[in-house]
Amino acid sequence: MHVEYRAAWLPFDPERGPAPELITLATAWVEQECAAQDTTGVVIVSQKPIDAFYPEPIQAFAARHEGTTKRGSAPRRTGPGPVLAYALLFDAMDYAQSLARGSSLCAIEWPDVQLTGWAAARGALNLCTGETTPPPPDDAVELLDHLRMVGNNGWGDVPGKRDAQQLLTKLHAAAPELTAAYVTSYLFGLFDVSARAAKQLHGMATKAGL
Fold it and tell me: What rounded mean pLDDT belongs to the chain?
């Protein structure tokens, strides 16, 4: 299943970390989406409460709108709407995507889950550059799409593992610059990939040399 939404992202800056002036780029984008859609937003975080543990722009956004976790209470608004995803693992990102169906989602990246591949699959706006995230090379796109097709069972059964390993080996030869993290997040962006399946794919991609 592929959930449609307008996407933007804030890549992690290893030198500046979660600097408030960077995070404000993400909150401002979601605020604009809320205004355009005449609705409220929601920020999804890894744990509550949304207090001083989080950067000030995240606290302020949650106060103006609302904030929750994957296992927390559902948003008060009725229906989908703009979502701000702050430093989430794949299982929580999946929840954030479901809330953004037909609307907008902005993801703030954290080193634990690299989102360059997700952003490429989604054609997400890079808020640091103002440009759309480019897709991988054409040869890689074809192989990645085939990898998606053999992942119906999360690459967990024997045929899925076999076909995935063959495709990942070809992918490494065709696009050696792609990493296991990129491939995993790209497939997550293409279709509904569980956190368990993402871990499985990442392990196979690493084994294939990516």
Answer: 93
